[in-house]
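Re: the request from the purification team.
They wanted to know what the chain is likely to look like in 3D before they choose a buffer screen. I agreed to run a prediction and write the result into the notebook, where they can find it.
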Amino acid sequence: MAIDEEELTRAIIGSSIEVHRHVKQGSFEAVYEECLVWELRQRGLRVRRQVAIPLVYKGVRFDIAYRADLIVEERVVVEVKSIERVLPVHESQVITYLALSGLRVGLLLNFNVPLMRDGIRRFVL
């Protein structure tokens, strides 16, 4: 069954809300990432973790230049944060991952918020 990007991002956001309900605010990013991967897989989604995104610089390929926290269904980049405040550099990080990976949609999920909806940023290239 093919799922469009809108449905896919809704599933990821729904999973992040579920994790946020059960894991206390202020936990480590790795905890949220682990639980989010579990939730996504429970929904039948394919997830890769800590995915190397190569950079080509002056014709030289650097395979470990960047690492995306998650890539879901080979279509959505997900960056997991547990920070006091999202800064432009965090948004730039997701946009860079999208540009280098060739993917179109990215989510920046900051779990260190009272309401998860306030910690979700969606990007489309």
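For the purification team: The two ends are 25 Å apart (CA to CA).
Please add any questions underneath this entry.
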